[in-house]
């Protein structure tokens, strides 16, 4: 549900910058406010975001319900269970390829 790219970006922005409106998030992401509003409502339906309660009139502010989301095999959808594979060896080769890209991306934020 939350894996939609725009939803992931919305959730990350709310976690990093705090409460915001669909319009402000749309401007930051180069999207329409209708699209961000729709995806925020979808995130709310599954408990990832909630009304921040600080809006006036038609302005609705949203906030993330948690600082992070942890997924594990016990909470995975039944169709996804058993699809996890451990990397070969001890994982250092994979970490050596992935971590530098992750650090570079984080430095841009």
From TrEMBL:
SUPFAM superfamilies cross-referenced by the UniProt entry: Winged helix' DNA-binding domain (SSF46785)
Matches recorded under InterPro entries: ArsR-like_HTH, HTH_ArsR_DNA-bd_dom, WH-like_DNA-bd_sf, WH_DNA-bd_sf
Stretches assigned to the HTH arsR-type domain: 1-82
Pfam families: HTH_20 (PF12840)
Residues forming coiled coils: none
Gene3D superfamilies to which the protein is assigned, alphabetical: Winged helix-like DNA-binding domain superfamily/Winged helix DNA-binding domain
Protein name: Winged helix-turn-helix domain-containing protein
